[in-house]
Design brief:
alpha/beta; 3-stranded antiparallel sheet; 5-stranded parallel sheet; 23 helices; Rossmann fold
């Protein structure tokens, strides 16, 4: 279908004056959301948003149905920006405006002087252009150096000189981001980082729907849906947000990290670059669980700053590094399939430590030490999911009798498998991982190494920094105190009487 290109043809199209001029952005979002809810469930309203079906998404739906400006409060890596950008899926495919207009004027009710003069001069021949949903979304990261001119606008002397206008003319105005978001969505990330006087500048647009530029006697009745994001620590009366602005935000919605490991795995699988254009790859479930549990363990660890949080980007980056290390091994050894091992998770430490804000105790131990502790804890918990109640005494006994094996993260799978077969009972225990001796050497080695790492995490066998698995350290026998009936009792009694 061809779109009308002049004001005259626009009047006789689906973009009639009655429909277009009375339907504001928040009405558009509301109507399109209602239509989508009739077709789908709440969970399908924002495709790609995982883990918020019963918590965040229903609250966002309520805010849109209420025509509220709203704010998402959450720690880093909780998909706040992604959710705000997903709002564009609720906008119409095309929105007509007067061609060349900086504030995307409604063709029937233009608000800027240039467009009013254009319509008065050309009438039905006024040229019409269209915006896509993505073009109607304007996003600004709040920083302390943002000025009112950046957001609202300012007088432009150069425009006045080139056009031969007086500075008092409305045609000399340079519009800021907010006017340029007219008839769309304007998002501000990290709202509390805006200076207080800039926050005050948002009052008019939120309450009265208009802006005033540079104290100049011009009012622009904008049509904008305002959405924000912030960290809960800053969004308080004692923080950096001013109370009057907080009061004008209709809905305050709190985001959160994945509630379950399964949700975290789904997010990581969706976001991480796992489909490489190289060797075929098999990504074991237990490796995915270990990577995800590293993030879960970090969020509970006292050595890591809870106020900063542990971003979901940690398992995403770690997963990409794990696959890359396995890819490097496969290329170097000319293997047919890439299968990550637990040793690859340790090799991904650079993708983990950079995502952790440490407390004093953590800084004293060092980021690498804390990262290895988190990986070990994640391995132990994942091992328990597969091998709780399993009899692995034969494997432990082999090491107790002096057995040792070195498993470098670069050793070829075929060579490693031959050495692993020497460990009594090990290959026979791959069943819970759904691996058998019919599977490839790469898969068997990965599964066997997971068992050994699990036993090491539970301190049933030892492992050196050179990845030599060996017998665990024997616990010293407890020193038994002599009973009161022992032969030294008379001596103690004599001392007592002396």
């Amino acid at each position: 279908m061809s779109l009308p290109r002049t004001l005259g043809t626009l009047r006789n199209s689906i973009y009639s004056e009655e429909r277009l001029s009375t339907r504001r952005v928040k009405d558009e979002l509301r109507e399109n959301l209602i239509a989508r809810l009739r077709e789908k469930s709440d969970a399908s309203v924002f495709p790609g948003i995982v883990g918020y079906d019963d918590t965040v998404v229903p609250q966002i739906i309520n805010a849109i149905l209420s025509r509220h400006n709203f704010i998402l409060l959450g720690l880093r890596g909780q998909a706040k920006s992604r959710i705000l950008r997903a709002l564009t899926t609720l906008l119409d495919p095309h929105m007509p405006y007067i061609e060349g207009c900086e504030v995307h004027d409604d063709p029937y009710v233009p608000i800027c002087r240039r467009c009013r003069e254009e319509v008065a001069r050309l009438g039905d021949e006024t040229q019409i252009a269209y915006l896509t949903p993505d073009q109607r979304y304007v996003e600004k990261l709040a920083t302390p150096d943002v000025t009112i001119a950046d957001l609202i606008g300012d007088i432009d002397p150069i425009k006045a000189a080139r056009g031969g206008h007086e500075l008092s003319s409305e045609l000399t105005v340079h519009y800021g981001l907010l006017p340029r978001a007219n008839r769309g969505i304007f998002a501000i990330n990290e709202l509390p980082d805006l200076a207080g006087k800039i926050q005050v500048g948002l009052f008019n647009i939120m309450q009265e729907g208009d802006v005033q530029i540079k104290g100049y006697p011009i009012r622009l009745p904008l049509d904008v849906a305002l959405v924000f994001s912030a960290n809960p620590e800053d969004y308080t009366a004692r923080g950096k947000i001013i109370t009057p602005l907080k009061d004008r935000i209709g809905s305050e919605i709190r985001t959160h990290y994945p509630a379950t490991v399964e949700e975290g795995i789904a997010i990581t699988a969706q976001e991480a670059w796992t489909k490489r254009n190289g060797h075929p790859m098999h990504l074991p479930n237990y490796v995915q669980e270990v990577i995800e549990r590293v993030a879960f363990a970090a969020r509970e660890d006292k050595k890591i700053d809870k106020r900063s949080g542990v971003s979901q980007r940690l398992p995403i980056s770690a997963m990409e590094n794990v696959i890359s290390n396995a890819e490097r091994r496969a290329i170097g050894n000319d293997e047919k399939v890439v299968v990550p091992r637990i040793s690859d998770v340790y090799a991904a430490l650079p993708a983990i430590t950079g995502k952790l804000e440490l407390e004093y105790e953590g800084e004293m131990k060092g980021a690498d030490h804390v990262g290895r502790e988190l990986i070990r804890a994640a391995i132990a918990k994942t091992y328990d999911e597969y091998y709780t109640g399993a009899n692995v005494q034969q494997i432990v006994q082999w090491f107790d009798l002096g057995g040792e094996i070195q498993l470098s993260d670069s050793v070829p799978a075929a060579e490693a498998l031959e050495n692993l077969k020497d460990i009594q009972g090990l290959i026979d225990k791959l069943g819970p991982l759904r691996i058998s001796q019919k599977d490839s050497a790469e898969q068997q080695v990965s599964a066997a190494e997971f068992i050994l790492e699990g036993l090491h995490a539970h301190k049933r066998i030892g492992r050196s920094e050179e990845r030599v698995f060996k017998a665990g350290e024997k616990k010293p026998e407890p020193v038994r105190e002599k009973s009161v009936e022992s032969e030294d009792r008379p001596y103690r009694q004599r001392r007592q009487f002396n």
